[in-house]
Amino acid sequence: MNHALKPIVFATGLLLGACSLNPEYHRPAAPVPVQYPINADADILPLPTSWQEYFTDPELQKLINIALANNRDLRMTALRIEEARAQYGIQRADRLPTLDATGTYERSKMIFAQGQTFDVDLYRASVGISGFELDFFGRVKSLTTALLEQYLATQEAQQTARTSLIAEVAASYVNIRALAERLALAKDTEHARNLAYSRILRRHQAGLDNAMDLKTAEMQLETAQASIAALQREYTQAVNALQLLAGQPGLAITVPQERLDRIAFSPLPVGLPSTLLERRPDIRAAEHRLKAANANIGAARAAFFPRIQLTTNVGLVNEHLSSLFSSSSDKAWAFSPQLTLPIFNHARNRANLDLARVRKEITVAEYEKAIQTAFSEVSIVLLDREQIEAQIASQTRIADADRERLRLAMRRYDKGVANYLELLDAQRSLFESEQQLVQLKQLSLTNSINLFKVLGGEWQAS
């Protein structure tokens, strides 16, 4: 073997034999109960592997696809992944020697004892390694591991942002559908009150109704028109909000002329709290940050030990540039290891180690909080689901009763048995009950969207 290559081979062998001072990693126990406070159903159902399997409405799928492609917040999180990947690549490169080629020219004057002088020209071309750290104690390896875990945490953060965006688009779409249905109910009410006003006007002109009834009918007609204006304003704002989420201002949004009852999402297997550790990307990101903090302790420990850096090169030397790469050139090589032993910075290294340990404890607390937050969010959604369904059942019966009451009040008024105030009260009660029923149905759909979000969104079965 060429003697000039031995230093490089030696350095590579030492690199491969590097050890690690990282503490052994143990996943902290999940600080949550083993069961949710309410029995969850649908546990035997298969896990959906994509959001399309859960949100099956064609118009909603189109809007989500547009948002995933154009939303600026999601685009920024994707760029942060590229940033973290580049940082990891830079740190990872430090684990391998960097081979550089250099060319130098040197001119000097030599003076001998007899007073003779002459000029010397030297041209040098060489390749070599400069300042490469032999990672005996795993300092560079620990730093590389920490950045890898940070990069993986950034990836999980991007998945969290993606899931949140899908849920926000779905909730915004449901809100638009609900406002459209409420607006249609308001227009129906306005039409009915307009007919009632016309009837009372004729009766007033015939002397059958008094001026009080006429003014009351007029006031109720204006109230219905004001409700239409308010709902129209909310609808426009909801459309603008959805266009912003989709990243396309002015996007045409098609709203099917169907009731909210026609929207349905696929059932989700809730599972046990322990499954959240694998489902939730924010929990996975917190664990990656915990592993990074664990690796930083290893790097802080390695700072107490000597650091060895290697500089070596091999090349050719000649007095003439034109002959530098000819057989007349002399061969030259250098091997310069450097040992740096910490002596008077023990206090600084001890403080850095204490800092790394404290930061790990902080990330442990953050990891446990992420688990507890996830458990709380799922529990709230499950508890709300039962209560909302009970409310919808009760409100449906109320709306049916109000509808029948209005029919009877209309008959009594036509026969002259009841006055207009009784009919007016029945109309107002039906309008309010129908509006509340639509809002409760929207709340139920939003609860299902939140369940998709708090369970981790889209995931692959283990």
From TrEMBL:
Superkingdom: Bacteria
Key words of the record: Coiled coil, Lipoprotein, Membrane, Palmitate, Transmembrane, Transmembrane beta strand
Single GO cellular component term: plasma membrane
InterPro entries to which the protein is assigned, alphabetical: MdtP/NodT-like (IPR010131), OMP_efflux (IPR003423)
Pfam families: OEP
Subcellular location: Cell membrane
Gene3D superfamilies tied to this protein: Outer membrane efflux proteins (OEP)
Main location: membrane
Coiled-coil spans in chain: 214-248
PANTHER family in UniProt: CATION EFFLUX SYSTEM PROTEIN CUSC, OUTER MEMBRANE CATION EFFLUX PROTEIN
Name this polypeptide is given: RND efflux system, outer membrane lipoprotein, NodT
Species per Swiss-Prot/TrEMBL record: Methylobacillus flagellatus (strain ATCC 51484 / DSM 6875 / VKM B-1610 / KT)
Organism phylogeny: Bacteria, Pseudomonadati, Pseudomonadota, Betaproteobacteria, Nitrosomonadales
